[in-house]
Amino acid sequence: MPKQPLLEINELKTHFHTERGRVTAVDGVTFHVNEGEILGVVGESGCGKSVTSQSILRLFDEKRLAQYDGEIKLKGTNLLELSDEKMQSIRGNDIAMIFQDPLSSLNPVFTIGHQIAESILLHQNVSKKEAYEKAVEMLRLTGIPAPEKRVKEYPHELSGGMRQRVMIAIALSCEPQLLIADEPTTALDVTIQAQILDLIVEINKKLNMGVIFITHDLGVVAEICTRVVVMYLGQIVEEANVVDVFENPLHPYTRGLMKSVPQIDGDRSEKLHVIEGTVPALDNIPKGCRFATRCPFADELCVEKVPELREFKNGQKARCWHAEKIAEEDQEREDQYV
Amino acid sequence: MGTVESNVGLTSVKQKLKKEQRQLFFKRLISNKLMVTGGMTILFLMIVTLIGPFLVSHDPYEMVVQDRLQAPSAEHLLGTDEFGRDLLSRIIHGSKVTMGVGFSVAAITSLLGMIIGLYASYYRFLDHILMRICDGLMSIPAILLGIALMAALGPNTKNVIIALSIVFTPHVARVIRSAAIVVREQTYIEAMKAQGASTWRIIWGHMMPNTISPLVVQATFIFADAIITEAALSFLGAGVPAPDPSWGNILYDGKLVIFNAWWMTVFPGIMIVLSVLGLNLLGDGLRDLIDPHTNQGKK
Amino acid sequence: MFNYIIKRILSLIPVLFIVSIAIFLLIHITPGDPASIILGIDASQEQIDELRQQLGLDLPVYEQYIRWILGVFQGDFGTSYFSNEPVTTSIIEHLKPTISLAILAQIITIIIAIPLGIAAANRRGTVADQSIMGVSLLGMSIPSFLLGLFLILFFGVKLGWLPVAGYQPLEAGFFTHLKYLIMPAISLGAIQAALVARMTRTSMLEVLNTNYIKTAQAKGVKNRSIVYKHALRNAFLPILTVIGQTFGILIAGAVVTETIFNIPGIGQLIINSVERRDYAVIQGVVLFVTLSYVFINLVIDLLYGLIDPRVRLDND
Q1: CB C276 within 8 A of CB C82
Q2: Is residue C132's pLDDT more than 60?
Q3: A contact chains, 3+ CB pairs < 8 A
Q4: What is the DSSP code (8-state) at residue B186?
Q5: Contact residues, chain A, for C220 at CB < 8 Å
Q6: Do C145 and B272 touch (CB under 8 A)?
Q7: Same domain, C223 and C160
């Protein structure tokens, strides 16, 4: 019997009530994360990857704004069935999250020490003094120099990289089983990016913590992830281990994404590939395959009928009518080159 | 070929977007019931102001001593005041004075404020001087400046309009200036200057149209503020002088007989609340229409 | 912080200069000569000339201004035409009731408006929110003198619970003092309460939408704590600004309220002076109130630094 995954998401749907009516931002997403695994979630902005991640913690206002369907199981417990109080005890304790822009994600009027200690005080039965000591320790763990001094500082007194380390310190302060990192390096410059990535990988190994890493940067995915989920317009279009995604992507969208990454060893005179057209609006979803409007392989079938997510070899899954054809073509082309 | 096609695609997308925005605009317009209510109230009061005086049966100045301080009845729908004058006709004639003052002040301040604001935003040296003057005048509380001006000018309706215009013009000028400066900073204005377009054309042809929407919102609020301030001044005896009726000085008369004649306080009071509420609703609604993101307090 | 204070104070100089000129000029656009107004129609030309000289009205306008403004710097706001008393003395005599009234109105404003604004923001879109906002809109549309009249009519005349007018100083006992001031304070504070409630709601909604509130949620912070600790502290700056502005408006609004309730404050002083055409007092009082208004806003600005650490540092 396979081990139970850490997190299991089944047919998750997130609807929003907006001025233009109900919009389904996440439409039937299913995936899982194992212990100690780093899962990459990839897609353009607006594809629903951030909404998915925030839905896991149920961060949207369910009274007015949002409605969830499906299942989100953390070690077998369906989070969508929990009371508000229960959910609060899971947030920051079992599942923690770090966000894209560390400056706006830290409260400007509290010291960073306060913000780390708050999380500890919420979930652990310790004194204030102990919590602050733990905060210093967390800052040290995330590689912030002179942490005793830093705890007393305010977010605006730190650099961007430091702030993201503080966010990570907050997230890790209660040793969560799962860390959701929502584009944690996008707002940082390249050298700092690398340091933050190293930090996340290091902690992932040390604590055997599951990580959902959300990004649009395929380079980062190749570097740290074991499995990848590709999202397009609120749905998963492809899921595979990291090697397969890069070597033989089955969905035309994934292929497009791969081609739009500059290759240092490829023919540099070749133009960078651009996926034609723009992502349709959520209230204007195509009838058939959601990618059909932009897909070079699209035919009548694609425009008319919605493809299912189908499984291929190695557990690779793709939501495309023509996945086999595309795989074959790729194979032929490779054969030609050889 | 490809570019032509994609251009066509782009234009149609743009057109569709525009259409959608327009639909959303009207959806908001209609769904904003409060604003529609406010607008209807003001329209109603305007009609009363314009044709009401011809409909009332009593002369607002006619004193009938034996009829003094009568409660509302069939003969005097809203009762009479301490001189036996019919309250209904005094309120309706008063609306001509009060609404008239409010409207005139809104119109005059809009015009003056627009000129000052536009030229201040165009010429930097003027900007410094004019805006300091505006800041100075705005830091004197409106009612105090009004009282002081009325004390100096002497109490009559024309002077109320002058005094209130002086009080509120800086507010309009500020709003116009900040709207116009956004346009002024745009590259195409620089390009127009380089091509030798006249200052007049740049200011009135290009900067002015962009200030219209904030101006309309601001003018609505000033209309309301002017009604309040006129009523307050007249109530204090520093506004429209007796025996002319204005809602403010009817209230002043009412204060003297508040123990005997509730109707003299309640009815003109209701008129003031209605007109100010109507204008506030209208102004709030207009502002949300123009910029749905700001939902801030009035001032 | 120190530089910031200095900068802020320096920026007031041109404003105050303009204010003083504007107020000073008021006297000089007056039709008719103050001296002949004071002495009445029976006075001889010699008497008038003598008084003009005594009041300094025979000097060139700019010299009159300089004399006046130098006096103001030394705390001398001029001399009443009517009673020959220094204006400063009159102001001090009438200041206490006005301050009492303004402070009470401010307290009422704050304890009503801020909780209501927070409640509305927390329940945005609900009936509770809409009713709070509806009442506040109504509150903003009733001028304070009108609300005062309505209150008098209801609580004073109809129910007879509260005195319809008059004033008792604090020395007469706290509750007596309060009994006379409560209606004026409510009528004065209502508009400001409406304004502060709306501002609180807007400001809270803005903050509740920020990323750091999301972070706090993701940490598992309880809803109460998110609202009252994480959000309110950040939302408080704009609320404080409005409160600062309203305190100035309260003092100015007191002018009208005092007249209705017959409270011997600054407002009554200025209205009496208007009736007596005592321009020296009008000038002095308007300048004094404006100065306090500007000063209060300055203090509020400086308070920012205490609440928001960013202001503290950015301006060092």
Answers
A1: yes
A2: yes
A3: C
A4: S
A5: 88-93, 119, 122-123
A6: no
A7: yes
Nearest CA in chain C to A174: C219
> Residues C149, C295: one domain?
yes
**Would you call B265 an interface residue with chain C, using a CB distance cutoff of 8 Å?**
yes
Which letter, b or e, does each residue of A197-217 get, where b requires 16 or more Cβ atoms within 10 Å of its Cβ? bebbbebbeeeebbbbbbbbb
Q: Calculate the alpha carbon distances from B7 to A278, A286, B16 in Å.
A: 14, 22, 14
DSSP B67: G
Between CA A37 and CA A46, with CA A43 as vertex, the angle to 5 degrees is: 125
* Same structural domain, A44 and A181: yes
Contact A113, A151 (CB under 8 A): yes
- A212: tokens are 């959902």
Residue A2 included in any domain: no
Strands of A77-78's sheet, edge to edge?
Answer: A21-33, A7-18, A66-74, A77-78
CATH number at residue C288: 1.10.3720.10
Q: Residue with structure tokens 């769904």?
A: B31
Residue A67 in any domain: the answer is yes
This model of the complex carries an ipTM of 0.83
**Distance from C21 to chain B by nearest Cα, in Å?**
9
Domain boundaries, chain B: 35-298
pLDDT at residue A2 greater than cutoff 70: no
Residue A206 belongs to domain with CATH number: 3.40.50.300
Residue A52: closest CA among A265, A236, A197, A192: A236
Q: Is residue A287 part of a domain?
A: yes
Domain that includes residue A204, residue range: 7-225
The answer to whether residue C313 is domain-embedded is no
* Number of structural domains chain C divides into: 2
Q: Specify whether C153 is located in the same domain as C36.
A: no
Using a CB-CB distance cutoff of 8 angstroms, which residues of chain C are in contact with residue B271?
none
Q: Contact C183/C257 with Cβ under 8 angstroms?
A: no
Residues A61 and A124 reside in one and the same domain: yes
Do C308 and A109 touch, CB atoms closer than 8 A?
yes
- Boundaries of domain holding C227: 96-307
Q: Considering only CB atoms, which chain B residues are within 8 Å of C243?
A: none
| A3 lies within 8 A of chain C by CB | no
A112 and A168 belong to one structural domain: yes
Q: Which residues of C touch B152 (CB under 8 A)?
A: 26-27, 29-30, 279
- Are C245 and C196 part of one and the same domain? yes
Q: How far is B260 from chain C (nearest CA, A)?
A: 9
Classify domain B35-298 by CATH number: 1.10.3720.10
- What is the structure's pLDDT at C315? 41
Q: What pLDDT, on the 0 to 100 scale, is given for residue B7?
A: 44
Q: Which two tokens stand for residue A115?
A: 């913000």
Residue B1 has pLDDT above 50, yes or no: no
What would the pLDDT profile of A230-264 be if each residue is shown by its tens digit? Answer: 999 889 999 999 888 888 888 888 888 887 776 66
Tell me whether residue C52 is in a domain.
yes
Tokens 């569709």, residue located: B16
Are residues A256 and A200 part of one domain?
no
Show which of residues 18-77 on chain B sit within 8 Å of chain C, judged by CB atoms.
none
Q: Which burial class, exposed, middle or buried, applies to B270 when counting CB atoms under 10 A from its CB (0-12, 13-18, 19+)?
A: middle
Q: Which residues of C79-102 are buried (b: 16+ CB within 10 A; e: fewer)?
A: bbbbeeebbbebbeebeebbebbb
How many residues would you count in chain A?
Answer: 338
C169 lies in the same domain as C123: yes
CA A33-A36-A37 angle, to 5 degrees, is 45
What is the reported pTM?
0.77
Domain stops at, among A183, A205, A225: A225
What pLDDT is recorded for position C293?
A: 81
Residues C39 and C109 in one domain: no
Residue A88 touches chain C, beta carbons under 8 Å: yes
Instruction: Write down which chains contact chain B via at least 3 CB pairs under 8 A.
Output: C
What does the pLDDT read at residue C316?
37
Contact C146 B262 (CB under 8 A): no
In a domain, A13, yes or no: yes
Q: Are residues C55 and C117 in the same domain?
A: no
